[in-house]
Design goal:
Length: about 600
């Protein structure tokens, strides 16, 4: 099988980002269900991402070169190590757990998410041609074209002539590793409940990982590894080290689980002190600024997509928590520092593009509550109603296509989105539930100038909008009205690159969001471009706030994230609602530059 991809480096970046987005989405989903403080969760995610990225880079650089990495951009250090990323990421997890006190469920979650995320990254390595396998005659073996690491190294070793179009057939060792990592994640997920100690599931995952790396190296070409090729008794030193780490981790797991009476990692109520979050933000900002020359754009992006929402949430709690009322303006200075670092780390230059196509994929999940009043009756002060309370739990996925034309002073977008999902309606009064399939088709257009913007469209399908209902009927069948068609429009005032205000009625792409149809927000692109935005807004029909972030990570790949705060809604039942998430990825192609 020949792997001939026009831009293999792009696919490495894509799967790298997908791995971190996978962890991001899963941790947020579990955190929302367990009602954790999201600012602490996001700061924990930021810490683990920063340590993982730095570990994967620094693990391949000798310690005597670390100072030069800090002092100036280190373009010659381009290797990465999954082992370094895993070990440093584990350190970041332990540090954030000690600060925020997350309990065992969060540790067990990371124990199986980590191997799966590494498995996703290995798909990028497969397409990129790095860390390739030894020659093989198997029918599933792969060959790499000119320009890949595999082709260059085989030519340098004299195995192929320079004019040969592809390499010798080699084992797709990255695919082997990816599949095994998925199995490791599955095993850890299914066995984590059987361990007695909080940290045992993570250590068991490390045991399986190290033994896996020991075995997989028999199929990897030594010239495709960034580590030394010194041999002892027929095995490379790297293999011996993996075997040694595996045995050592096994012994530690045995002693910790059976013979130690103490817990290495203790859980408690997370987010103990608000001021600790601000000290934490300063330290993360210093780390990002220190190593900004080492990290690539997409590595920086996987950190900022967690860090920016954490900063906004911390600012929100700063001005709503009375404990820091006396120190608000002084403490808020801590939030200025990461914004400055952000401006220093995100590149401001982008090619001048006239037209391009865009594909979005994403989803949303969460729950909301409402009250339905029915059975009108004449009372002493007018008409009275009986009431029933409902809770709606939904999951929606969607995709969209758009065509964008960028002119000197404006951007015109035409597009359409398709979304579908399920919504479960629970009558809290009667304790009954029913599930419905919801879907929507959404054609739209937008025109954005420097100072003004606007657009319109409509949604057609089996649609839901969250709002309290009053019906003049004697009985009730459902908590919400179903809509066949809903209009949508959008207006914006101010330069999006610096500061703007907008109002949206609908306009949530690519996934239809069944609780949100009217909102107002303010935001900024921090002077970068209109492809970057951090926003805070208010949803009128939910009477609650939200934060959102948008970033163009490469010329082709972007991400949008929104978190809606838990609404302050009275329910006469012990069944409160939680926050809600919307996220999407976008891919841009077919660029026509001036």
């Amino acid at each position: 099988m020949d792997i001939t991809i026009e831009n293999p480096r792009f696919y490495f970046k894509l799967f790298y980002l997908l791995a971190f987005v996978f962890i991001y989405a899963m941790v947020l989903y579990k955190s929302v269900k367990r009602k954790y403080h999201l600012r602490s969760v996001l700061l924990m995610l930021t810490t683990i991402s920063l340590f993982t990225v730095l570990g994967s880079r620094l693990f391949t650089i000798s310690i005597d070169h670390w100072l030069s990495v800090i002092q100036s951009p280190a373009t010659e250090f381009n290797n990465r190590s999954a082992v370094g990323g895993l070990l440093f990421g584990l350190v970041g997890l332990v540090i954030s757990q000690r600060v925020f006190g997350f309990n065992r469920p969060m540790l067990d979650l990371y124990a199986w998410l980590g191997p799966i995320a590494l498995g996703i990254i290995k798909f990028g390595c497969l397409f990129n041609g790095c860390c390739y396998g030894v020659p093989s005659n198997a029918f599933w073996a792969v060959r790499y074209p000119v320009g890949t690491h595999a082709h260059f190294n085989q030519w340098s070793a004299g195995l192929i002539p320079s004019d040969m179009a592809t390499t010798l057939s080699v084992h797709p060792v990255q695919l082997y590793e990816s599949l095994i990592l998925f199995v490791v994640g599955f095993i850890v997920c299914k066995t984590h409940k059987y361990w007695r100690k909080n940290f045992s599931a993570i250590v068991s995952g490390l045991v399986l990982f190290f033994f896996m790396r020991f075995g997989i190296e028999f199929f990897r070409d030594p010239s495709g590894s960034q580590f030394n090729d010194v041999y002892y008794y027929g095995l490379r030193w790297y293999q011996w080290s993996m075997l040694l780490y595996g045995v050592l981790a096994s012994v530690i797991l045995l002693i910790y689980e059976r013979y130690l009476s103490i817990e290495l990692i203790k859980g408690r109520q997370n987010s103990p002190f608000l001021h600790a979050d601000f000290m934490y933000i300063i330290l993360i900002s210093l780390g990002l600024y220190t190593f900004k020359g080492l990290l690539s754009t997409y590595e920086i992006a996987v950190i900022w997509i967690k860090f920016l929402p954490a900063i906004v949430l911390s600012g929100y709690y700063l001005f709503t928590d009375n404990r820091l009322k006396r120190y608000r303006w002084i403490t808020s200075l801590a939030l200025v520092m990461p914004v400055y670092v952000f401006a220093q780390t995100i590149p401001t230059q982008k090619p001048v593009v006239k037209q391009y196509h865009r594909i979005d994929v994403g989803g949303s999940f969460g729950d909301f509550a409402n009250e339905v009043r029915f059975n009108p009756q004449e009372g002493e002060c007018g008409t009275t109603y009986d009431s029933q309370y409902f809770k709606q739990t939904y999951s929606v996925v969607g995709g969209g296509y758009s065509f964008i034309t960028e002119k000197k002073k404006s951007k015109i977008t035409y597009g359409a989105n398709l979304s579908a999902g399920t919504i479960k309606s629970t009558n809290l009064s009667a304790n009954t539930s029913e599930s419905d399939f919801i879907f929507g088709v959404n054609p739209y257009f937008k025109v954005d100038g420097k100072w003004l913007g606007g657009g319109g469209g409509f949604q057609l399908g089996n649609l839901r909008v969250n709002k309290d209902e009053t019906i003049d009927e004697n009985n009730i069948g459902d908590a919400q009205k179903t809509y066949t068609i809903l209009p949508e429009f959008y207006v914006r005032l101010g330069p999006k690159k610096y500061f703007d205000i907008d109002y949206n009625y609908g306009f949530m792409y690519p996934s239809a969001f069944p609780t949100l149809y009217s909102r107002v927000s303010i935001g900024s692109g921090f002077g970068l471009s209109d492809n970057y935005s951090l926003r805070y807004g208010h949803i009128l029909n939910l009477d609650t706030g939200y934060i959102s972030a948008e970033a163009l990570i490469t010329e082709q790949f972007g991400i949008n994230i929104m978190y809606i705060f838990e609404e302050d809604y009275y329910l006469p039942f012990d069944d409160n609602t939680s926050g809600k998430m919307v996220f999407s990825l976008n891919y841009r192609f077919g660029h026509k530059s001036k």
